[in-house]
Design brief:
The chain has about 250 residues and is mainly β. The chain has a single domain, classed as Jelly Rolls (Sandwich), CATH 2.60.120.10. It has no helices and 22 strands. It has strands at about 5, 15, 20-25, 40-50, 55-60, 65-70, 75-80, 85-90, 90-95, 100-105, 115-120, 130-135, 145-150, 160, 165-175, 175-180, 190-195, 195-200, 215, 220, 225-230, 235-245. The strands form four sheets. It has a seven-stranded mixed beta sheet with strand order 1-20-17-22-15-13-14, with no helix packed on it. The chain has a seven-stranded antiparallel beta sheet with strand order 2-3-4-11-6-9-12, with no helix packed on it. A four-stranded antiparallel beta sheet has the order 5-10-7-8, with no helix packed on it. It is globular and about 45 Å long. The two termini are about 20 Å apart. The mean pLDDT is about 95.
């Protein structure tokens, strides 16, 4: 029987200072909540806003798949592998940190804010060679259905990560229905509402005002082979992260 974990937008840990406005779904840095450690292999999900010219100075990572998705603005990335890149809204950056990498990440906008999703996924193999990738989000191909942009195997439009995980995005209009089939039996689904208001099968099992999910809400679903739902707002942009649950 399907199991549901609901993370309402305002239940996230909210940190704010003079350069960063961060909403953290799971324990991260100085935020620790033993009930919010991860969702299977999904370890970190931060929705961050950086002020102009500010960001994260040079720092290390290892043995983690790190995905950055600008929603507005652009990010400037630099690492010790020789990569110096700028990614903008409509793109995604993937770091397989493996045996170790140092990098920095700044808002590249001279005047405006940059909002981006920072997502960490545990790898299925440790101490691999680090690598950096970029991939365009399938914003046009992903209309009226979910379209993958990250998967275990790469293709022309998909970047591969070191895990049996998929990331897909979908753009829908009012009253449209959607369906997502699970790629690998036993994987769980984490659905994040970037914008919009939606209903999801089984939502009646969760205490949600109005029985719908809206901007910033997250829903973890396990023990399913698919999920489906309907859009209630004028439009909706939805992110699906499918991950193994044995973590």
């Amino acid at each position: 029987m399907a199991q549901y974990i609901f993370h309402k937008s305002d239940s996230r840990h909210h940190e704010y200072n003079d350069w960063l406005d961060s909403k953290k779904t799971f324990s991260f840095a100085d935020y620790y909540n033993p009930k919010r450690m991860n969702f299977g292999a999904l370890r970190v999900f931060n929705d961050d806003i950086l002020v102009a010219g500010k960001g994260f100075g040079n720092h290390p990572h290892d043995n983690m798949e790190i995905i950055s998705i600008p929603l507005t603005g652009s990010l400037k990335h630099k690492d010790n592998l020789g990569n110096e890149k700028i990614i903008s809204a409509g793109q995604s950056q993937i770091m397989s940190t493996g045996s170790g990498v140092f990098h920095s990440e700044y808002n590249n906008e001279p005047d405006g804010e940059t909002r981006f999703l920072q997502i960490w996924i545990y790898p299925n193999e440790l101490n691999t060679s680090p690598r950096y990738q970029e991939v365009a989000l399938p914003t046009e191909k992903g209309r009226s259905h979910f379209e993958a942009f990250i998967a275990p195997q790469a293709s022309e439009t998909i970047s591969a990560i070191q895990q049996n995980a998929w990331m897909s995005i979908g753009n829908f209009e009012k009253h449209q229905t959607f369906n997502y089939p699970v790629h690998l039996k036993g994987n769980g689904i984490y659905l994040y509402v970037i914008t919009g208001a939606i209903e999801v099968d089984g939502h009646q099992l969760i205490e949600v005002d109005g029985h719908q999910l809206s901007d910033g809400d997250g829903l973890g679903i396990t023990e399913i082979d698919h999920f489906s739902g309907k859009v209630n707002s004028e439009n909706a942009q939805l992110l699906v992260i499918e991950v193994p649950m044995q973590f």
